Amino acid sequence: MPAIVLIGAQWGDEGKGKVTDLLGERVDYVVRYSGGNNAGHTVITPDGQKYALHLMPSGALSPDAMIIIGNGVVVDPKVLLAEIDGLAERGVDVSRLRISGDAHLIMPHHRALDRVIERYLGSSRIGTTGRGIGPAYGDKVARIGIRLQDLLDPGILRKKLELALREKNQILFKVYNRKAIDLEATVEEYLEYAERLKPYIAETRAMLWDALDRGETVLLEGAQATMLDMDHGTYPFVTSSNPTAGGACVGAGIPPTAINKVIAVSKAYTTRVGAGPFPTELFDANGDHLRKIGAEYGTTTGRERRCGWFDAVVARYACRLNGVTDLVITKLDVLTGLPTVPICVGYEINGVRVDDMPMSQTDFHHAKPVFEELDGWSEDITKARSIDDLPENARRYIARIEELCNTRVSVVGVGPGREENVHLHPLLP
Length: 429
Prior knowledge:
Adenylosuccinate Synthetase, subunit A, domain 2; 10-stranded mixed sheet
């Protein structure tokens, strides 16, 4: 079977890790194709164990799937090795991991610059995690980045780092009055990482091409989400890569003709971490309810997530942009007990009703949500396993999302556990 892309349809944190884990036992490869350790996936296994994954693909918890970190990811080796060790200590087999030699490294100067630049932006800050993701991608585009394969050649590593630090240390010291990065100490540190990472570094593109030729199933797992895409999201309040379905081809090195299914994950409401426009954001008791019941705190940062009602304009945009074939709606159970469950069906901008994403950043900042209120439900739905098990109002809510997004809903999450799902249509044959 050809490749499947799994993406987020909102601003991230939709529950992609749970869906990857759900599919993991039925796919042969799970590939992370974008982002860095600024992302986080939380997976809860059937025995109740909770895993917070940042760089490792969520398929790491599936016993048989090969797990790949593609060329489109930026890798902090210290973080990756800590994650590998943490999983190994809990009995998870990490020998199946392979990392593209073309993936770029996050270096100490990237982390230092990320933190100091964000601090100096003050009230205009983007809300980055400060982990060096943006500066690493910036160096990649500027053609002065350092890649995983460079760890295998100490001479190349030293030469590239020396070149990069000529500029970066000037900026750190003379512009921001920060301590310069020590070349020798950094080379020594990263050569130690090289010894441990060497067995995992591979030509992952060829591995995936061969797998597709054999008819094996490749699941491409994006970090972050559509509205954080560098080109198609709410720029500049976005991530530094392309987590949309098109980014999967670039970030994993496979042809677009290999993809025959795109699964998008969306919460039954909307959340966002960091700064940026958010038309349906709630500042009242309903927002507090969603945050508390939904445990809306970042997997990576622990930051409170901003919460709001479901935004069908955003979801429909994501479905059209990514060519979504199947929607997965997570956390429907969080809405239980609310008397009404509003859905944003359009925006009002300067007194004019619009039903699609506005073209300009200014218009989106000024967009006021137009809500359609649906009746809520009070019944416990966490034991539901078929559509008929859901209360009538919950079924109406899901049906309205399908209608507004013009995309079928295939799975509905009714709890955090791996088995707590209602299946409407099979995600895999």
